[in-house]
From TrEMBL:
Species of origin: Planktomarina temperata RCA23
Keyword rRNA-binding appears in the UniProt entry: no
Entries under Pfam families matching the protein: HTH_1, LysR_substrate
Name used for this protein in its record: HTH-type transcriptional regulator, LysR family
Keywords: DNA-binding, Transcription, Transcription regulation
Example of a GO biological process term: DNA-templated transcription
Length: 325
C-alpha cells in the first residue's frame, strides 16, 4: 500500500531547490537550517534517490531532483494560487442568482434594493434567463424558477404562489356589457394569454365550467410582462397572477373581471439548487431574506383579496392537466 506523501518534506525540498542553500530556505520557512536538512534527508530516504549534489554550502539538483522540483514547484504554486483566491473570496461576499425573466423584472427587481440595504457588503449578480441553471457547468448559487416543482436531481423549495384570476383595465371592463353569465361576458372580450403560464385560459374556463360560444378573440404573448402591458393598455382581459400583477391591482390600474369566481392558488416559483448548496452562506442568507419578502408580499395579497371580495381556491397541481393546451 503506497505511503501518504510527507507534504512538509516536499515544501522544504522545493524551497531549498529554489533558494540554493539550506540557510536561505530556512529563512524563508522561518525554521532552523537543521530542520530543513532533516526533512530533505527524510525525503531522499523515502524516495531512495539523491536529490542534491553538495558542494560546500551550495546545493545543485541531481537529474532526479530536477524532475521532482518541476512537479513539486508546479503543485505548490497551484496551492498558493488557490489559497490567495479563496482568501479573496472569503473577504468578498458574492451572491450569484438566476431568475425567470418576468419574475425578475416584476417581483424580485423592485425588492432587491431592500436586500442590498440589509446586506451592503455583499456583491450581487442577477441573471434573468428563461432556461434553468446547469449547476455543474455554471457558477451560480441559486435559481428562482417558474414551474411545477419537478426539477430532477435538484432541491426545490416553493417560495411564491400564483393567485390566478382574469384582470383588465377599468376602461376595458366598462366597455363590456354587464351580463350575469360569465360565458356571455367573455364572448365579447379579447382574451390575453401568456405562452409560458402554467394556467391558461383553456384550462381556467374548463376548470370553472364556463363554455363560451367561441366568439372570443385571443392574443398569445411570450412573456407575462408583455401580456400584462397589453391589458394595461386596454387591449383585453389577461389571465394572470397577483404574484406579477399586484402593483397594478393595488393601484387600480387593473381590476378583477369576475370577482365571484375563486382565485386559483398554487405554488409556482421555486428556489432550486443542488442539495449540497443549501449549506452555502450566500444561499442561506438569500433564502432567509426571501422568506421575509414573501411574507410581506402574501400580506399585501390578502389585503387586495379582501378589498375586492375575492375568495381563494387552493389548487393541487397536476402537471399534465395544467400543461395541456
Amino acid at each position: 500500500m503506497p505511503l501518504t506523501p510527507n507534504l512538509n518534506a516536499y515544501l522544504y525540498f522545493e524551497t531549498v531547490a529554489r533558494r540554493g542553500t539550506l540557510t536561505r530556505a530556512a529563512e524563508e520557512l522561518s525554521v532552523s537550517p537543521s530542520a530543513v536538512s532533516q526533512q530533505v534527508k527524510l525525503l531522499e530516504q523515502r524516495l531512495g534517490v539523491k536529490l542534491f549534489r553538495r558542494d560546500g554550502r551550495l546545493l545543485s539538483l541531481t537529474l532526479e531532483g530536477e524532475q521532482l522540483f518541476q512537479t513539486s514547484n508546479t503543485a505548490l504554486r497551484m496551492l498558493r494560487d488557490a489559497d490567495r483566491h479563496l482568501g479573496k473570496t472569503r473577504d468578498t461576499h458574492r451572491l450569484n442568482l438566476r431568475v425567470t425573466p418576468s419574475f425578475g423584472v416584476r417581483w424580485l427587481g423592485p425588492r432587491l434594493a431592500d436586500f442590498v440595504a440589509r446586506h451592503p457588503d455583499w456583491e450581487l449578480r442577477v441573471d434573468a434567463a428563461p432556461d434553468p441553471t446547469d449547476f455543474e457547468r455554471e457558477v451560480m448559487d441559486l435559481d428562482i424558477r417558474y414551474g411545477t416543482g419537478d426539477w430532477h436531481g435538484l432541491h426545490a423549495r416553493a417560495v411564491v404562489h400564483d393567485h390566478v384570476l382574469p384582470l383588465c383595465s377599468p376602461a376595458y371592463l366598462e366597455s363590456l356589457d354587464a351580463l350575469d353569465d360569465p360565458a356571455e361576458m367573455l364572448d365579447q372580450a379579447r382574451l390575453i394569454d401568456s405562452a409560458r403560464a402554467i394556467c391558461q385560459w383553456d384550462f381556467w374556463l374548463m376548470h370553472n365550467g364556463i363554455e363560451t360560444r367561441g366568439n372570443t378573440k385571443s392574443i398569445l404573448m411570450d412573456r407575462s410582462s408583455m401580456a400584462l402591458q397589453l391589458a394595461l393598455d386596454g387591449a383585453g382581459i389577461v389571465l394572470e397572477s397577483l404574484a406579477l400583477a399586484l402593483p397594478e391591482v393595488t393601484e387600480g390600474r387593473l381590476v378583477p373581471v369576475l370577482p365571484e369566481i375563486p382565485v386559483l392558488m398554487f405554488p409556482s416559483y421555486w428556489a432550486i439548487c443542488p442539495a449540497r448548496f443549501l449549506n452555502r452562506r450566500p444561499v442561506k442568507l438569500f433564502l432567509g431574506w426571501l422568506d421575509t419578502a414573501v411574507s410581506e408580499h402574501t400580506a399585501q395579497i390578502e389585503t387586495v383579496l379582501d378589498q375586492h371580495g375575492l375568495t381563494i381556491e387552493a389548487f393541487d397541481l397536476d402537471h399534465g392537466q395544467l400543461a395541456a393546451r
